[in-house]
Amino acid sequence: MLAIPHQQRLPIAIAALGLLFLALFLLYPLFNVFGASFLDSEGGALTLGNYAKMLGRPFYRQAIINTLGIGIAATLITTLISVPFAFALARLPVVGRAAILALASLPLILPSFVSAYALVLLFGRSGVVTQWLQSMGLGFGSIYGAGGIVVVYVLTLYPYVLLPTVAAFKAVDVSMEEAAQNLGSSPLRTVRTVILPIVLPAILAGALLVFIETLENFGVPFVLAEDMPIFAVEAFKLFIGETSPNPSSAGVLGVLLILMTAAVLVVQRHFLASRRFATNARRTPPLLNVGRGVQAASSLYCWAIVILALVPFFAIVVLSFMEFRGPVLHGHFSLDNFAPLLGRASRPFFNTLIFATAAAACATLVGVPIGYVVARQRNGMATLLDVVATLPFAVAGTVLAIGFIVSFNSGPLMLTGGPLILVLAYTVRKVPFTVRSASAIVHQIDGSLEEASISLGRPPLQTFLRIVVPLMLGGILSGAVLTWVTVASELSATIVLYSGPWSTLTVVMFQSLESGGAGVATAAASILILVSIVPIALLYRLVRRYGLD
Amino acid sequence: MAGASRSFGPVRAVDRIDLTVGDGEFFTLLGPSGCGKTTLLRMIAGFCDLDSGEIRFGEKRIDRLPAHVRDIGMVFQNYAVFPNLSVADNVAYGLRARKTPAGELAKRVEEALALVRLAEYGKRKPHQLSGGQLQRVAIARALVIRPQVLLFDEPLSNLDARLRVSMRAEIRELQKSLGITAIYVTHDQEEAMSVSDRIALMNAGRLEQVGAPADIYRHPASRFAAEFMGTTNLVEARALGREGGLLSLRPEALRLSEEAPEAWPRLAGNVVDLEMLGPITRLGVRLGDGTILNVAILDAPERRLNQADKVTLAYDPARLTVLR
After folding, report:
1. What are B203's strand-pairing partners?
2. CA separation, residue A292 to residues A161, A260, A289 (Å)
3. Cβ of A410: how many Cβ atoms within 10 Å?
4. Would you call A456 and B76 a contact, using CB atoms and an 8 Å cutoff?
5. Do A455 and B70 touch (CB under 8 A)?
6. Residues ≥6 apart with Cβ < 8 Å to A346
7. At residue B20, what are phi and psi to the nearest 5 degrees?
């Protein structure tokens, strides 16, 4: 039977369109990056020489070591800090738990390189705090290099471990604990032998996310690494500096970076897939009875981390209202820093808003149907779609952008130099996220609702639009707003792809970092922070008011 | 339905099923979980394709038609009432899909809601309704489109025991008064017997026996049918001093000797198990050769029975079924 069964037609059509889009704007650019790495600098002959050349240089070998070393250190420290934090939030009578949880998710939406930049402004060579300390004859170690990068990673990425781990601690049914204690286990032994093993998959999943983020991050090492070679930064520098027709060296670094992140993802899939203990707590475990001392200590610990992570952002907002002359700060209140960005040079501001809106809309349009198919279908086609749609996650923004430039700088799809290339790159980068969130919602919608609608006479597409989409609305909206916010502060792909009038707020920050115009940079950062928080706050109110969750 | 088959991997979920359901009949597919009854129902609804075979409504072949044009009402196990629509909009959903004019639509929705005794509930949202009410909305929604066949997929299994009993009577009454053909899936033997005109007993993708409830109960065609349709005693004929192979003897076909007609054969044994359940008393009686028989007798106040008592049983020879 060659005919496609009726109930399969809509999913197959969606999958085909989704795969077509991803093939054109993800696989094809990646293929070209791979291709570039295997061709000689004239783009003529196949060769492995590029790999030999790059890996033969101590500088790039050091880049691999630095990137992995910093990633591992940041991941370990983040995990060590976040697990006790999560336990305290889930099980101890910490003061202000709701506020801590809300504040702890803020770093997820705030751009990490702004935090790095704030660190430079405060503690850098001519930083505010540095100068103040120097005036009193005090000095401290440098924040540039590995140490500073790790600190910023820990402070901006810890929610990736914290939030799932809190949820996991709360999902351990009390009866587990009671059973263990009933069998004669001491409380500490119960934590070690029963609770931690149940929570471990959540911790590991979060830790791997942190690790991947550190491998791909471009902005933080760009601000803080100085002469230290870091992968994503070197790939960018090589690509910008490469004059020959084929970007072979940048291609090699790009491929190596993809291989590293892909390896982590594969490990995650295989390792975690077999170790999931969903216990679906019927009774959330109660807060533990502890003395005032423990309560005070745990509260202090949680608040310290939350506040430390937000101080850089707060500082940069304050600094943006001060007067700068070049990089030098003068202690007067001033709105001058904002004048160019909101006045005569407001293009980047509006570009940011427009690109973020367009990309959020596109990522939603592409991701929601794919997420629907991935959640509803159990076959090879859905698995393929799932894998391909998750792939952008393993691709650093810099690498994808290089692929875009190589692929779309000529021919029928000539996109370089325009705004569309940015929107498409953002869309591809955010698709894994919208697919994940959409499929998570679809999993919660009973499949028989669709069957009921179809048997009542609505064809599958109408059923999808009339029943599934309305039920997903709250989730779709949240996903779109989060996409919007993260696109607005995207740096790594933007910096490779923007051209001429199509710069964004992040580009303005990036440029003034290089030219030393701290005032404009702080203003751009402040606007970015505002642009990140306001939509989330609005969404929160909207969802609450209309009960869309 | 002729030769309907469907495999999932190596498993033949539905294996060459031939069935004919009469007009206005209440027909039940009964069997343990995994026997293929739900797959068969979903084939009729159009949510599961046939590997081979065909399904017809009268002369019209429907198994190749997409589900949304088959004109079938379906009532789901978990109600599947659209949570984003009001009760009235749920019921109107199928009519809107058929572009029914507004005036007629309102009238039919009202009638359908009255039919399931939810006339006052049109404006409510599903989350304000109880499980039993939700299932009535689902039934009204399926009835209002006047489908050729009404399918029920274990519609009562999410309701509590008391409600199940009253709902099944209600469903049966509704189906008879409208004269609509119904195909009903359940794993509950008692439920099947109470609502059905005919039952198709399924096992491992095949039809085990098709017939009126009383027929299947009294004359099971196989060991599976005998065991699945209520409790029974499966005994080798030798244990009763008879010829032949395996016999099925229902517990209620056994009585204590002093309460049984003269003509019934007698069996001697010891009481090894005694359960007083109110209207009936259940006994386990071990015969001389070790066979244990389950006996169900009506409660009688003057009777005195204790564990380990010697008793003589009598059985109705007309109620023995030879299984092989």
Report:
1. B206
2. 27, 46, 10
3. 9
4. no
5. yes
6. none
7. -130, 125
CA of B147: which chain A residue's CA is closest? Answer: A456
Q: Comparing A15-32+321-549 with A57-318, is the CATH topology the same? A: yes
**What is the pLDDT, as a whole number, of residue A276?**
56
Cross-chain CB nearest to A448 (options B76, B93, B141): B76
**DSSP β-bridge partners for residue B293:** B285
Give the distance from residue B185's alpha carbon to the nearest chain A alpha carbon, in angstroms: 16
3-state helix, strand, coil in chain B (%, to 5): 35, 30, 35
Query: Two tokens at A322?
Result: 């001060």
Superfamily holding A15-32+321-549: MetI-like (1.10.3720.10)
Report the gap between the CA of B42 and the closest CA in chain A (Å).
Answer: 10
Q: What is the pLDDT of residue A272?
A: 66
Cβ–Cβ under 8 Å, residues A463 and A450: yes
| pTM given for the model | 0.85
Measured from the Cβ of residue B151, the count of other Cβ atoms closer than 10 Å reads: 23
Read off the pLDDT band of A1 (50, 70, 90).
Answer: very low
- Tell me what pLDDT residue A70 has: 96
**Is the confidence at residue A516, as pLDDT, over 70?**
no
What are the chain A neighbours of B76 within 8 Å (beta carbons)?
448, 451-452
Sheet of B206-211: strands edge to edge? B72-75, B149-153, B181-186, B26-30, B198-203, B206-211
Whole-angstrom distance, CA of residue B3 vs CA of residue B50: 10
What is the Cα–Cα distance from A90 to A102, expressed in whole angstroms?
14
At CA A28, angle to CA A352 and CA A401, rounded to 5? 30
What token pair was written down for B279?
Answer: 């209207």
What residue in B sits closest to A451 (Cα-Cα)? B47
**Regarding beta strands B26-30 and B198-203, do their DSSP bridges make them parallel or antiparallel, or are they unpaired?**
parallel
Q: What are phi and psi of B268, to 5 degrees?
A: -105, 145
Q: Find out whether A347 and A503 touch, Cβ atoms under 8 Å.
A: yes
pLDDT: which is higher, B61 or A187: B61
A27: enclosing H helix or E strand: none
Q: Answer for the pair A114, A529: CB distance below 8 angstroms, yes or no.
A: yes
Which residues in chain B are contacts of A446 at CB distance < 8 A?
78, 80
Ordered strands of the B11-17 beta sheet: B11-17, B2-8, B52-54
CA A352 to CA A78: how far, in whole Å? 31
Please give the Cα distance from A186 to A180 (Å, whole number): 8
CATH ID of A57-318, from 1.10.3720.10, 3.10.100.10, 3.40.50.720, 1.10.10.10: 1.10.3720.10
ipTM confidence score: 0.86
Give the residue extent of every domain in chain A.
15-32+321-549, 57-318
- pLDDT above 70 coverage of chain B, percent: 100
Q: Of B267, B249, B247, B248, give the one whose Cα is nearest residue B257.
A: B267
User: Could you give the domains of chain B?
Assistant: 2-227 (3.40.50.300), 247-322 (2.40.50.100)
Owner of token pair 């060579």? A125
* Distance (Å, whole) CA B42 – CA A451: 10
Say how far apart CA A397 and CA A544 lie, in whole Å.
34
Q: How far apart are CA A448 and CA B151, in angstroms?
A: 13
Tokens 């027909």, residue located = B27
